[in-house]
Amino acid sequence: MPKTLSQSEILQLVLRISIASVVSYYSLKWMFDRLDPTYKSKKKARDKAEHQIKRLGGSEGLELNPATLNDHELVIASHLVVPDDITVSWDDIAGLDGVIEELRESVVLPIRHRHLLQNSQLWEAPKGVLLHGPPGCGKTLIAKATAKEGGMRFINLDVAILTDKWYGESQKLASAVFTLASKLQPCIVFIDEIESFLRSRNVQDHEATAMMKTQFMMLWDGLSTKAGSTVIVMGATNRPQDLDKAIMRRMPAQFHVGLPTEEQRLKIFRLVLSTETFSDDVDLNRIAKLTHGFSGSDIRELCRNASVFRIRNYMRNGSGNQTPSPNGTEPLPPISMDNLLSSFNKMKESRMHTGLLVTDNSVD
Ligand SMILES: Nc1ncnc2c1ncn2[C@@H]1O[C@H](COP(=O)(O)OP(=O)(O)OP(=O)(O)O)[C@@H](O)[C@H]1O
Which residue spans traverse the membrane (predicted)? Predict the structure, then answer.
């Protein structure tokens, strides 16, 4: 006759089975984690995310415990930029006063003064903003400055992480973007090259990609209907024509950030050189005229090169050797017109070789 177990024996057995299950679960989890080739980068992202959120808690009193975030939210949070780290403000952008003024009125003021008109749905910031135009003309700069001026947290979303190769991960990450942004609000989710993952849907789309896009839009709509939500998706693109029409509709505020005109280039030159000393012979009007087709980023590069030319001349002694100037105590000479022109000619030449020289006169 089989022996019946006493109550304490049954309890012991249950306890042993429970302990064995827990140990097996964690051992297997540990093993699978390490088998995942992205384990190390995920861990690094998690550590970075925790660090950034703790900093937000310190400087802005954000009450968010990183331990309450799920793995996917932590991956997204690793792209969080803390306002203290945003060094850009409106003052660092030249020649784009019109765009700045509109963003100030439509995004920054409603967010900064949201307590004033809590019940007005008309004075709400748009849930989507699109900045479009050629590379290097200040789209990222504008997005960061808007976050800074609006006192908003900034998630610089890298679209590559949303296209995770593991089935189902993309959707979870897309959902994490919005749940995290809501916890961090007021918050801007910035997506550079937004057309690369929200391009017009077509039949060749992988099923998982199509589902991720649909889910992204549903979550975005969820934000729009949530009263008082201060999460803004800000997209930047060089190819607005490639964007899905449904996405376009979700970004009612759209701004063209084009190649600067001669007048705008002059303003950018003045701004970039405002911290430098330059000689009396520098004619900024002339250099602004010459640099037709240059972006703001090109102008910065031109000035940086001019500064390199200046230092190179300074380091050369009279015989032209690459040796420091006598006893190295002479003050650094100011940037000269010659330095700027040498830099301009160098850039023009390299652009001719790479075919990047703009010959379209419409921007001026
Ligand atoms: N209007 C501007 N005023 C001052 N600096 C500018 C301006 N436009 C561009 N720059 C300079 O060029 C750099 C690059 O600009 P930014 O990254 O904002 O361009 P972008 O339009 O986002 O380009 P991309 O499409 O390549 O991301 C800036 O960090 C800044 O130094």
Answer: none
